[in-house]
Amino acid sequence: MKIEAGQKAPEFSLYDSEKNKVNLSDFKGKNTVLLFFPLAFTGVCTKELCSIRDNIGQYNSTNAQVLGISVDSIFTLAKFKEEQKLNFPLLSDFNKTTSDAYGALYHDFVMDMKGVSKRSAFVIDKEGVVRYAEVLDNAGDLPNFEAIQSTLATLN
Fold first, then answer.
1. Alpha-carbon separation of residue 151 from 6, 16, 27, 106, 147 (angstroms)
2. How far is CA 101 from CA 49, 85, 88, 120, in A?
3. pTM summary value
4. Which of 4, 26, 122, 135 sits CB 3.0–4.6 Å from 34 for a disulfide?
5. Spatial strand order in the sheet of 64-70
6. Can you list the alpha helix ranges (DSSP code H) found in 13-127?
7. Confidence band (pLDDT; 50, 70, 90) for 113?
8. What angle, rounded to 10 degrees, do the helices at 43-54 and 74-84 form?
9. Helix and strand totals (H; E) in the chain
10. Cβ partners under 8 Å of residue 60, min gap 6
């Protein structure tokens, strides 16, 4: 299913890299940025998430919580977060249900891998409505961070 701006964001319940259960509804009253990424420890994913780390102040200043989501295990995500000193939660969609619900799942990926998150960005407002949706078919591309910031600016 493809998620578009104006739709209610699909609820989810996933574990973070610290083994805490996280629900989208936990962030009601706060803007939320969901960043789906294919795989921890890969070049483009590391570049993307380190860019967020280095610019986290921009997201904090717009009352936005950033959440990174991939199909990696919580253990892999914990190591990745630690090594890259990431300053926002990473959530494991190991069962692929959330990636699928957001239309952000490669059914066939490189080297015959099945069920890997597509690089995607969603901005969800304080009421749980999607205000920005970008699903990239090419895993080598990065989300449009300027468009994400512009969307967040209009929500405050």
1. 13, 26, 17, 26, 6
2. 22, 29, 22, 12
3. 0.95
4. 122
5. 21-23, 13-16, 90-92, 64-70, 31-36, 120-124, 130-135
6. 43-54, 56-60, 74-84, 97-101
7. low
8. 60
9. 5, 9
10. none
Q: CA–CA distance from 1 to each of 4, 16, 81 (Å)?
A: 10, 24, 29
User: Among all chains, which residue has been given the structure tokens 């914990």?
Assistant: 78
- CA dist list (Å): 42 to 13, 108, 125: 25, 17, 30
Over residues 46-101, the pLDDT tens digits come to: 999 999 999 999 999 999 999 999 999 999 999 999 999 999 999 999 999 999 99
* Residue in this structure with the two tokens 């891998």, named with its chain if needed: 113
Give the H or E element holding residue 13: strand 13-16
Cβ atoms of 71 and 37 closer than 8 Å: no
As a whole number of angstroms, the distance between CA 17 and CA 7 comes to 28
